[in-house]
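subagent[fold] <- orchestrator: predict structure for attached chain, return tokens only, no commentary.
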Amino acid sequence: MGYASFTNWRLLEGDPDVIWHAFTHPTESGLYEEHKTETVLGPDFAMAAGHGWDAKHGEECDFDVVRWTITRHEPNRVFEFSGKQRGIRQDVVLTMEPADGGHIVTETIRFRPAFAGKPGAQVLSWLLLATGLLAKVGDDHGESLDLLEEHVAAG
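subagent[fold] -> orchestrator:
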């Protein structure tokens, strides 16, 4: 079962290394995200499979702490990671490919049930997932990529 997901993309101009770092590195992407979290990297953090970071959410998310784990990283090409929050596992795939005049960055997020978080919150999350509302609510329709574009352009 594929469960709910969404994909957004943008064509960005600029240095591919700068774009990739801003798009994928947890502390850099936190600089322009609209939904602010505190990013905590471990002392041995590396952009490599098996490594991860914690995203500490604020009051709007009951101060949840989400542990993100990198599952695949090919610099300037693909970055995959996953985390669990409130009964939902999120698998995220970020890609970048050369295109005329720049680079196309693509973000795909897939949701599926997981046993994580508070039991009451799990049930609500599972209902949102089953009805398709989770993907509709979770999809920012590329707003985060708009913010990425502004961040890269500001240099």
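orchestrator: received. Logging for downstream: The chain has a mean pLDDT of 88. The CA atoms of residues 25 and 47 lie 8 Å apart.
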